[in-house]
Amino acid sequence: MNASRAFRTALLALAAAAALPFVSCGGGGGGGGVTNPPPPSSGGGGGGGSADVTITIIAENGNMSFSPNPATLNAGQRVAWRNSAAAIHTATQNGGSFDTGSIDSGATSTPITMTTAGSFSYHCSLHPAMVGTLTVR
User: Fold this and answer.
1) Residue 129 and residue 64: Cα distance in Å, rounded?
2) Phi, psi dihedral angles at 16 (to 5 degrees)
3) Which of 65, 109, 110, 135 lies at a CB distance of 3.0 to 4.6 Å from 48, suitable for a disulfide?
4) pTM higher than 0.70 for the full model?
5) Domain segments of the chain as ranges
6) Cα separation, 112 vs 41, whole angstroms
7) pLDDT number for residue 9
8) Contacts (Cβ under 8 Å, ≥6 apart) of 109
9) For 48-85, what is each residue's pLDDT tens digit?
10) pLDDT tens profile 21-51
């Protein structure tokens, strides 16, 4: 019986250690020159200050889902996504460096500060055919 308890304890410790790389301390969202705040609540009211660039989510129309697309901003500027579609959507960078979380219909995401120049392809994680590009100068 003690061996069984020791085995379970060791197994739980191993599972906890294996989960550590997936625990986030918040913030960066995986690098890529992005300051990624926590996503908005499912209520999706937005907040967290104003954005320099706002991209409108139009609908599930492939590369015509986000407007403007591509969107362009300067390094250090803030970008947010406004959902004008009926369904919940996200804006999730393909490499994982930013993710708005769920944005309800009529809501705006929390602005994300883009700190590094480059081209960032993104999609809606709920509707992967919805794609966009963010160009940071």
Assistant:
1) 10
2) -65, -40
3) 110
4) no
5) 27-136
6) 15
7) 52
8) 39, 40, 44, 46, 80, 81, 82, 91, 100, 101, 103
9) 579 999 999 998 888 899 999 999 999 999 999 999 99
10) 333 323 333 344 554 444 443 333 444 579 9
CA neighbor of 66 nearest in space, from 122, 112, 110: 122
109, 91 in Cβ contact below 8 A?
Answer: yes
**3-state class of 99 per DSSP?**
strand
Looking at domain 27-136, which of 3.40.190.290, 3.40.850.10, 2.60.40.420, 3.30.428.10 is its CATH number? 2.60.40.420
- 9 sits in the region (left: phi over 0; alpha: psi -120 to 50; else beta) called alpha
